[in-house]
Amino acid sequence: MAKIIGAVGTSHIPAIGGAIHKGLQNEPYWQPFFGGFAPVQQWLGQEPPDVVVVFYNDHGLNFFLDKMPTFAVGAAPEYLSADEGWGIPAQPPVPGCQDLSWHLIEALTEREFDVVTCQEMLLDHAGTLPLKLLWPQGNGQGGWPVQVVPVCINTVQFPLPKPSRVYALGKAVGEAVAAWQSDKRVLFVGSGGLSHQLEGQRAGHINKRFDLQFLDSMVSNPEWATSYTNHELVELVGTQGVELLMWLAMRGALTAAGPSVREVHRNYHIPISNTATAVMALAT
Ligand code: DHB
Ligand code: FE
Questions:
Q1: Is the pTM of this model over 0.90?
Q2: Whose CA is nearest to atom 11 of ligand 1?
Q3: Domains, the chain, ranges and CATH?
Q4: For the CA atoms of the chain, what is the radius of gyration?
Q5: Which of 30, 153, 194, 275 to mutate to test the pocket of ligand 1 (most atoms within 8 A of CB)?
Q6: Widest pairwise Cα distance in the chain
Q7: What percent of the chain has pLDDT over 70?
Q8: Tens of pLDDT along 96-113?
Q9: In terms of Cα–Cα distance, which of 165, 181, 51, 160 is closest to 108?
Q10: Sheet holding 94-95, edge to edge
Q11: Which of 133, 137, 130, 134 lies closest to 151, judged by CA?
């Protein structure tokens, strides 16, 4: 059986890619953000996963407003990075894990999550930046040290899936991974959030109080945020802050490894660009 080693939640912002490209990680503006990843990288060095299931939102690259799946799962042999700009200009293709992709697609459909299957898929900053933040050196040979299975959740165009539905999707993914006939080690990643709003009169809106409560809930009360509607979440954390649904899916997936988790590390820093940033690593 596959082994679930833990989960990581992280913010994604295109400007992070630009900072990596320009080598600005130790500049005063960036250090409080990038410094938060060192303990997580160290943990992953001790507990290296083979495959990463990344819960993320596509920002208009694969799906635009004319066609918007609620849930989509990648089943490609590899995923090309094709960000919308501001990011890292060139990145190696990310290898897929088609065996796990199809296992998840079958298990999710059986559980009545009728996902869109994507045998071709491009990754934007929400898919690639977590990898670059967790493994800045890649595999040391110009590639990535892990395979990925992207699980895309619509947080871009209403109606969005309910928080409780997203948590249930995560649980179904976790249980499918736990039942996967494989000796591979699997990490879940939730990419997005925390509070931010990019447009309109409330551009720059941040809610530190809610963010910190949300981070606490990830450790000991993971269903806490499912008591909110998406409209309430948008009011609380901003139109793009609702990306915290990715963290809910990631945490739901982790429940398949047992009722309790160990917090390895967390970091919260305001702001990077318009966003309240966070990284949190949870071990099984
Ligand atoms: C920003 C944040 C995001 O989540 C995103 O997808 C794009 C931009 C920002 O704060 O600049
Ligand atoms: Fe985003």
A1: yes
A2: 273
A3: 3-283 (3.40.830.10)
A4: 17
A5: 275
A6: 51
A7: 99
A8: 999 999 999 999 999 999
A9: 165
A10: 94-95, 78-81, 122-123
A11: 130
